[in-house]
């Protein structure tokens, strides 16, 4: 992959509009029937982005595969927010609009986030209530839901903001881990599952060698981790386990779970994922799409339930 993000040019217009048409088709196929109707975004809107220096294309191998608008504040439709508040309503910010990509261009949203947060530490974004794909990506990358804004035509949008305390995602197979990385992951697992929960159990279970390991760091400190195991290792189905958040209440747990689901799909083509969840955490796992699939059972002296995620 030879992906770059660069300022859009008027000569890119045909390619950009093809990307927009493809993005609208994806929306309709996913059940989002109302967003981007009536010819929006038009060439005039894209031209305005470009003239302001805020239109950007994503190129892969020399071909335009995506587009975004990245514009400085103020954004007129963000002047009033309802049923909530912005995280910060004093500092200048940038807003991301009109994200679109071709269906086979994977990882576009992550590329956009890296590009934008390298240039601005305070970013706002909004999306349609029916756009489940965009909401998933926004939440996975650590944005906080702030409330509802209304566009100039009166349409409602869900509004999000992120201040740049961006945790860094690490994702490796067992054999790609350095000795220091492995030590730190095992140290955190022991600290939480053995010491904090006062539970004697065999953490080193032989499944790590076949798993994909994910963790988030902030200022070089591990704030969340998880592992994804292929079918037939820890469980009969593809599974996610060893889920830990060391700093609670900041959304890192949800981020690592959403990344783990994506990793299960990327590495193991998952359509079905199982977890053994501590019973008290049922609501947390439901928030990322899992449903209870067993009665309560005891595991290492702690009540657990099996929960299952299925791809739509």
Index terms:
single chain, 312 residues, alpha+beta, 7-stranded mixed beta sheet, 4-stranded antiparallel beta sheet, 15 strands
Given the structure, what is the number of helices? 7
Low confidence ranges: none
If you average the pLDDT, what whole number results? 94
Ends: how far apart?
A: 28 Å
The helix/strand series, from N terminus to C terminus, equals: EHHEEEHEHEEEHEEEHEHEEE
Sheet/helix structural class: alpha+beta
Counted beta strands? 15
Q: What global shape is seen? A: elongated
Q: Please list the strands of the largest sheet in the order they lie side by side.
A: 1-2-3-4-5-7-6
Assess the beta-strand content as a share of residues.
25-35%
The main β sheet shows up as: 7 strands, mixed
**Helix content, binned percent:** 25-40%
Q: What value does the Rg take, in angstroms?
A: 21 Å
What does this structure look like?
This protein has 312 residues and is α+β, with helices and mostly antiparallel strands. Helix content is 27%, strand content 32%. The strands form three sheets. It has a seven-stranded mixed beta sheet with strand order 1-2-3-4-5-7-6. A four-stranded antiparallel beta sheet has the order 8-9-10-11, sandwiched between helices. Strand 2 (55-60) and strand 3 form a beta hairpin. The two termini are 28 Å apart. The mean pLDDT is 94.
Concise structural overview:
With 312 residues, the protein is α+β, with helices and mostly antiparallel strands. The protein has 7 helices and 15 strands.
């Amino acid at each position: 992959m030879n992906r770059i993000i660069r300022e859009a040019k008027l000569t890119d217009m045909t390619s950009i509009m093809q990307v927009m048409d493809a993005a609208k088709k994806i929306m309709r196929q996913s059940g989002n029937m109302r967003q981007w109707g009536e010819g929006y975004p038009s060439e005039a809107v894209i031209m305005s982005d470009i003239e302001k220096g805020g239109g950007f294309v994503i190129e892969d191998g020399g071909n335009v595969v995506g587009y975004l608008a990245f514009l400085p504040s103020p954004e007129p439709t963000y002047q009033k927010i309802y049923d909530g508040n912005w995280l910060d309503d004093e500092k200048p910010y940038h807003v991301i609009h009109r994200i679109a990509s071709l269906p086979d261009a994977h990882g576009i949203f992550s590329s956009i986030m890296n590009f934008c947060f390298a240039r601005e530490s305070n970013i706002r974004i909004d999306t349609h209530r029916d756009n489940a794909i965009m909401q998933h990506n926004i939440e996975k990358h650590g944005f906080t839901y702030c409330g509802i804004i209304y566009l100039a035509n009166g349409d409602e949008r869900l509004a999000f903001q992120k201040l740049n305390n961006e945790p860094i995602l690490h994702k490796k197979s067992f054999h790609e881990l350095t000795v220091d990385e492995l030590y730190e992951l095992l140290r955190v697992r022991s600290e939480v599952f053995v010491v904090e929960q006062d539970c004697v159990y065999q953490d080193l279970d032989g499944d790590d060698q076949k798993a994909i390991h994910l963790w988030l760091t902030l200022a070089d400190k591990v704030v969340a981790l998880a592992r994804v195991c292929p079918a037939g290792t820890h469980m009969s189905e593809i599974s996610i386990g060893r889920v830990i958040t060391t700093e609670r209440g900041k959304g890192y747990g949800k981020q690592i779970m959403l990344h783990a689901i994506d990793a299960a799909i990327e590495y193991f083509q998952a359509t079905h994922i199982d977890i053994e969840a501590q019973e008290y955490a049922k609501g947390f796992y439901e928030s990322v799409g899992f449903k209870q699939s067993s009665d309560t059972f005891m595991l290492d002296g702690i009540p657990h339930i099996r929960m299952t995620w299925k791809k739509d």
